[in-house]
Amino acid sequence: MKTIERPSVCTYDCPDTCSLSVVVADERIVKVKGSKANPFTDGVICDKVAHDTAAMVHGPLRLLQPMKRTGPKGSGRFERISWEAALDAIYERTRAVIDRWGPQAVMPLNYAGPHGMLAYDSMSLRFFHQLGATHLSRRPLCGGIRAEAWSGTYGAVPGIPPEMAEDAKLIVVWGNNATACNLHLVRCMSRAKKKGARVVVIDPKRIKVAEQADLHLALKPGTDVLLAFAVAVELERTGAIDLRFVADNVLGYDAYMARAREWPPERAAAECGLAVGDIRRFAQWIAESEPVVLSIGNGLERCRTGGSGIRAAIAIPALAGKLGAKGGIVLGAGNAFPKTMAKLQRPDLAPAGTRTLNILDIGRHLADDDLDLPLRALFIYNHNPVVVHPDQNRMKRGLAREDVFAVGIEVVMTDSMAYCDILLPAATHFEIDDLYGAYGQHWLQRAAPVIPLQGEAVANTEVFRRLAARFGFDDPCFLASDAELMDEAIDPTDPRLDGFAPSRIPTDRALAMNAPDGKPFVLFDNIRPATPSGKVELASDTLAGRWGAAQRLPGWRALASSEPLMLITPASDRRISSSFGGLHLPQGAPPLLMHPADAANRGLKDGQQVRVWNALGEVVLPLEITDMVRPGVVSSEKGA
């Protein structure tokens, strides 16, 4: 069998955005390996992409033709139809909704399945903007809170690239299950440890990276802000606040410290479930180490005070003066890229006054019909809301409504696709052209198809070109080719493109998105905060203006719940959210991890099936009794 290797890029929702080498035989993928095109990922990829890609692209779950529902919603019963029939049905049903309710009764329900700039949202948003559909605020589902905390404190600037962790003397991995979802940061950390660096891991669970840590702070979920306050107080008590750096570069220091002093180490330790001595040791290591590198994951944001926790955590390097040559924060990588999103997505096409709905509220809006102008037509793509949304019971009830018309655009059959009326087959990232920025590293990449389009599947961009034509949209922007879309996604005049048009960036190399001096971005070395004051804003009038006066400073509210356990859902080494989830069904669901004391109190035994529930959803999982989680906390990987 003759094989050929072709370059590609991993599209999944992961900060690393690995460069790939895809082995192809007879126009089918037979193997996926890492490539060295991206120096950061350097030929290493995760097991799930290496082992599961061919089964996902060519397996029995793949959607290869348009389909029409023939059974009840959720039954998964469909019959094959033509593209023409599918487009006609979508047009007729959507037009009927618009004629009765207006265009804002239509909404895209999409998120971050693929991270290519074209597949993620390009021609799709042009279509919905022209249609006048309801806007969807997607960021609250994941990553948006972290991004707001970062921009409110430092502005829309990049933090340091993760490669700089290799030269750190102290690395803090906070709320980041890095072994599963930030693999190459762990490789940098391991190299730093060989050179004498210390590692602190802050996570309620003893995740794998915590096994390599010099200090693991297994705090109660949702108390991150209190730990960060206590560290600030301890730095102040020991004279480790860099007062000169603060005076020159920090806004809101006095107000911030007044808030932090309410939580000295003794009080914070009791609420966080930590030893006072461990908090003090953490602060001491920050004070005496240079450089200090802080990596903040999305784990912090998944609680009611998550934004405050992130703001307080990223305040620590500013208070200690551990920025510039003395350290940095691995955050805000997306700000390193010269994206031109308005040209790509054309928000100017949308009618003035179009409403915006929060993605977290969609289940309630559908199930309870609580909007004056209801949602009656949905286009679900790049997303599996039945699995991914937190309000699962309502989402399932809402999607099961016969008066809600749903179009699914997907690569494989998922739980959510089973609720759709019409299915359109989408191409995988191995079958299309796309551009890849990243949210966890500073390298720009392009990929071209490595195999032909499978069956009748087409790129997301082509799906929405066909929809635009069927709806009669005649603006030339709906005729743009994928190459033209790429050239509208990135500023072609940016000197870091080495003279290449975005659509002509070589596929066998990645372009470094460095600062104007040609060196990696480093705050307080070759870049300053992009806040209104030009300083690190520990008290943020920007966030107060956006979210209310109470958000000027980080704060904490105790969780009021009648439920006896707290559930955390870290990233998996077998799935990326729900991507690849269907391939592992024969292996069963991931276990629920529970501390021995909690299991004993409930008379539970290792390996038995247990029902885990609250008002928002439920799941049955096998139980694993372990001290990897603290008492009062249970854990199960997300995405199954």
Number of discrete helical segments? 21
The beta-strand count equals: 26
Query: Whole-number radius of gyration?
Result: 25 Å
Strand order of the largest sheet: 5-4-17-16-15-6
**What is the 3D form?**
globular
Look at the structure and give the mean pLDDT. 95
Largest sheet: 6 strands, mixed
State the low-pLDDT regions, or none.
none
Q: What is the helix content? A: 25-40%
N- and C-termini, Cα separation? 35 Å
SS content category: alpha/beta
Residue fraction in strands: 15-25%
3D architecture notes:
By secondary structure, the chain is an alpha/beta fold. Helices cover 30% and strands 18% of the residues. Strands 5-4-17-16-15-6 form a six-stranded mixed beta sheet, covered by helices on one side. α13 links the parallel β12 and β13. α15 packs across α17. It is globular, with a radius of gyration of 25 Å. It starts with a strand and ends in a 5-residue tail after the last strand. The mean pLDDT is 95.
Keywords:
640 residues, six-stranded mixed beta sheet, five-stranded parallel beta sheet, 21 helices, 26 strands, 30% helix, globular
What does this entry show, briefly?
This protein is of the alpha/beta class and 640 residues long.
Would you spell out the secondary-structure blueprint of this structure?
Blueprint: E1 4-9, E2 19-25, E3 28-34, H1 47-58, E4 67-69, E5 78-80, H2 83-101, E6 106-110, H3 117-120, H4 123-131, E7 135-137, H5 144-154, E8 170-174, H6 178-181, H7 183-194, E9 198-202, E10 215-217, H8 224-237, H9 243-249, E11 250-251, H10 253-260, H11 265-272, H12 276-288, E12 292-296, H13 306-320, E13 327-330, H14 341-345, E14 356-358, H15 362-368, E15 377-381, H16 385-388, H17 392-399, E16 405-410, E17 422-425, E18 434-436, E19 443-447, H18 460-470, H19 482-489, E20 511-512, E21 536-537, H20 541-547, E22 566-568, E23 592-594, H21 596-602, E24 609-614, E25 617-625, E26 633-635
